[in-house]
Write a structure and sequence with these properties.
- This protein has twelve helices and no strands.
- It is mainly α.
- It has two domains: 62 residues, Arc Repressor Mutant, subunit A (Orthogonal Bundle); 146 residues, Tetracycline Repressor, domain 2 (Orthogonal Bundle).
- The longest helix is centred in the first third of the chain and has 23 residues.
- The protein is globular.
- The N terminus is likely disordered.
- Keywords: DNA-binding.
Length: 222
Amino acid sequence: MSAVNVDVEREGRGGWKQDPAGVQSNILAVATSEFSANGLSGARIDEIAAKTRTSKRMIYYYFGDKDGLYRRVLEEAYRKVREGERQLDLDHLPPVEALTRLVEFTFDHHSSHPDFIRLVMIENIHHGAYLAQSDLIGSLNAGAIEKLETICRRGKEEGLFREDVEPLELHWQISALSFFNVSNSATFSRIFGDHLYSASGQETLRRHVVEMVLRFALKASP
């Protein structure tokens, strides 16, 4: 029996063998914090293992190596945001309300998940190399565009949306407005003060982001 399998058996006697999903979830939660705080190069498997309820060998057993763990962290981060979008059940809402709900969700998700924003920033430093290795992330994000395609199609059919509104561009705009709010919060508030990052400031920004996106998408009033 290999050393890794011996280690798996030992941890199994402590109860973890009966909950492999729990083991992996615990590892991914800790790894998310470590990678988002320290980047891919700065994060250490030893440090991640020390903060989990398992061992370094179990991390290698489930994820292969640090690159494999980082890739899974990215996949899980994107899976969560797309699952949140799916739960909005937008197909059963009128197009304007559906677009409003999607913008509100994106703003709220990014605001409450700064780790996700930092992971995306880190992956941009790596020129999207690990995203390119994941078929799962590609399919998840294709679904996000398909959702906007449906909203835009219905909005155009009902004579509410401009005919030249493109779902991909709309996704870019929603993402950009919601992303900057988190990615540049430290520098923006340091330079201009933290008023916009108070509870009332964030509520105002959220409302105005929705208004900006709707003004872009909707036909002008006659």
